[in-house]
Amino acid sequence: MAQNIYDNPDFFSGYSQLPRQVHGLDGAPEWPALCAMFPDIGGKRAVDLGCGLGWVSRWLREKGAHSALGVDLSENMISRARELTPDAAIDYRIGDLETLDLPEAAFDFAFSSLAFHYIRDFDRLVRVVHRALTPGSFFVFSIEHPIFMAATDPHWIEDENGQKIWPVNRYAVEGERRTDWFAKGVVKYHRRIGTTLNALARAGFVIQAVDEFAPTIEQIKQVPTLEEELERPMMLLVSSRR
Amino acid sequence: MAQNIYDNPDFFSGYSQLPRQVHGLDGAPEWPALCAMFPDIGGKRAVDLGCGLGWVSRWLREKGAHSALGVDLSENMISRARELTPDAAIDYRIGDLETLDLPEAAFDFAFSSLAFHYIRDFDRLVRVVHRALTPGSFFVFSIEHPIFMAATDPHWIEDENGQKIWPVNRYAVEGERRTDWFAKGVVKYHRRIGTTLNALARAGFVIQAVDEFAPTIEQIKQVPTLEEELERPMMLLVSSRR
Fold first, then answer.
1. Going by fewer Cβ within 10 Å, which terminus of chain B is more open, N or C?
2. For residue B137, pLDDT beyond 90
3. What is the ipTM of this complex?
4. Is A163 in CB contact (< 8 Å) with chain B?
5. Considering the entire predicted model, what is its pTM?
6. Chain B: residue whose CA lies nearest to A215
7. Superfamily of domain B5-144+192-241
């Protein structure tokens, strides 16, 4: 079973204060780049893997999705998502992406935001998603960028000339990474970019586009702290098609 | 026109001593991973972009390729390649990948090793290759990994805890990078991984596999200095299909 850090009270109280939890999609700077990868959502049966508070499921319905299923490991998240959602065509379920099963050809669009780097067996999950989608369907997701999370101790450093740099090491050594983020010992799984993309290709997805989130000038004007995201790739956004 | 560093005598005398120039493909640790991406070469008309001394063109013919065209900017390289090649089905031509044109549907396999990071207009080149290949043909290439070359001053650093790290900065800022490598001011062009892959998809190629070269345990035993390539991704290998 995947680590359920989201139901740890300390974690959840910190995490709930993140801009993207308080402000929803407007608090997620990568959202415009991510939804630029979406197909026309009208009439689609969507599934959101690691749905959190359900912001994306509600957005998809506003854009005309036929229905949405949101799955998340966290009981906290799912119960909050249900409270926030006055829409009978959205179903939220508690589920572990590590062992999840989905019905065959039951969805026309699959999505996930910043969840898959918590999953040990990504290959299995990709096969489940492939089987659950109808032919031609898009599968769009974001993860923490492997360069953001590979290092044994990822934090900004100044080199001997005062240049601000992001450190990389252990890149080729895939597997568990433990980090402290609102709680001690949050477990993530590092995979190389190639490993993630090849899992998709192997399962039968065709890669449509790969984006490594970088803030726009406009975004930096509004939120100056985003400027450092020009220095390192923080998130990897992938669009693929069954 | 692309910078022709290879015909600078200082550069060429240093470069010629690299293991991969002296020992050919056996001196290139990524070669096994790269040729694992190749289709069956038998009967194929191949083109090698940035062919250098022609090691790959000769290898392709040994594996049964119908013919090979090697293109390189460097007169030094092309004249040495011709001397080394007793094979009338291999043609070497001096050509600039920045402005190269190729005949339509004239090739069944396109290859390039560590050349495209010298090219400013990768989009144009990808369209030229797409047009020059027959449907179903593979296009396999390697480049310096964007993480290897993005930083303003790429060199091994120790962090405050003595961890050996590879620095990343300016990752989202694409374009020219100047480095000193056998000569001063060698010009390379940094593109994000997404930019390279999206150029392929946009031109009509389907991405088959992405590999970020890492040495095997066996390779590290034979060449212990390769161990540091576990820390950072040094080369990006891409297989795509028209």
1. N
2. yes
3. 0.94
4. yes
5. 0.95
6. B172
7. Vaccinia Virus protein VP39 (3.40.50.150)
